[in-house]
Design goal:
globular; alpha/beta; DapA; TIM Barrel
């Protein structure tokens, strides 16, 4: 008897790029570039969703006005054919509520809300913050669990409680705790999205809804190919395609430089809108950019061969 994989409803799309925020050469917001990049990711890259003003989108160094301008530009460009989720998380509840309401007015389809950072609130305080933001608009909320950056993890108990809120609909999972993710998936209807590219297939196999991918900025089709194969029932090909992504995932998010820096370096290399990063980040140097370009070529070559080549240890 065939076993059916649990498939949560995808309120934030299925293949979402954690889109960089393009800047002009002098560091200003590049709305034209943002529209061109969004169109490329959706129409050419196969992404059915974009997440704006997240970590990769340099949310710590863009103003509230820039966030709204970026959101309006991208909604205008692709909002009729992709789910647009706006990052609104800050360490200040009142500020986050204001950003959430602004994003709703600007046409966002959903909100990404990171746990408050630096102040290290208790789980009760985190829950109150997230529920307050979810109460502020009519939009579905994706919780952003990334303790490596915020210093505060969402516990399984907290996630189970928050899942009862009618507008808390999903989780961007960068917690590196598959046991916790599995416990919450088994007990709730929260739509889980892999926020770490190396976990796209593992989390989907547990019942996740999709991914919010940094690597998709440069290789959206290769990212989508993993989920396409799995959802078609071809788990062996899905595994080969996930493994083909490893060189690029390691180069982009492996820690040598933040994903914002590496993704922008690759997009600049490809002649796509990106521009400089804002301080305190520093642009990739020529050596790192060369290694990133090599990793991209390797991944694309391996992805092209993934349907026929069978890596050791993976059943054909």
């Amino acid at each position: 008897m065939q076993t059916m994989t649990r498939t949560p409803a995808p309120p934030f799309g299925r293949v979402a790029a954690a889109m960089i925020t393009p800047f002009t050469a002098d560091g200003a917001l590049d709305t034209d570039g943002a529209q061109r990049l969004a169109t490329r990711l959706v129409d050419d890259g196969g992404c059915d969703a974009l997440v704006l003003s997240g970590t990769t989108g340099e949310s710590p160094t863009t103003s509230d006005a820039e966030k709204e301008t970026l959101l309006r530009a991208v909604v205008e460009a692709v909002g009729d054919r992709a789910r647009i989720t706006a990052g609104v998380g800050t360490s200040d509840t009142r500020h986050t509520v204001a950003l959430a309401r602004g994003a709703e007015r600007a046409g966002a389809h959903g909100l990404l809300v990171v746990t408050p950072y630096y102040s290290r609130p208790t789980q009760e305080a985190v829950s109150h913050h997230l529920r307050t933001v979810a109460d502020a608009t009519g939009l579905p909320v994706m919780l952003y669990d990334i303790p490596g950056r915020t210093g505060t993890a969402l516990t399984a108990r907290t996630l189970l409680r928050l899942a009862a809120h009618p507008r808390i609909a999903g989780v961007k999972d960068c917690g590196y705790d598959l046991l916790k993710s599995a416990k919450v998936l088994a007990a709730t209807d929260l739509a889980y999205y892999a926020g770490c590219d190396e976990q796209i297939l593992p989390l989907r196999a547990l019942g996740g809804a999709g991914c919010v991918s940094t690597v998709a900025n440069a290789a959206p089709r290769a990212v989508r190919a993993v989920l396409d194969a799995y959802d078609a029932g071809d788990t062996a090909t899905a595994a080969r395609r996930q493994l083909a992504l490893v060189p690029l995932i390691e180069a982009v998010t492996g820690g040598e430089a933040p994903g914002t820096v590496t993704a922008k370096a690759l997009l600049d290399h490809l002649g796509l809108p990106a521009g400089p990063v804002r301080g305190p980040l520093l642009a990739a140097d020529a050596e790192l950019t060369s290694r990133l370009a090599d990793a991209l070529r390797t991944t694309l070559d391996r992805t092209a061969d993934a349907d026929t080549a069978v890596p050791a240890g993976v059943p054909g």
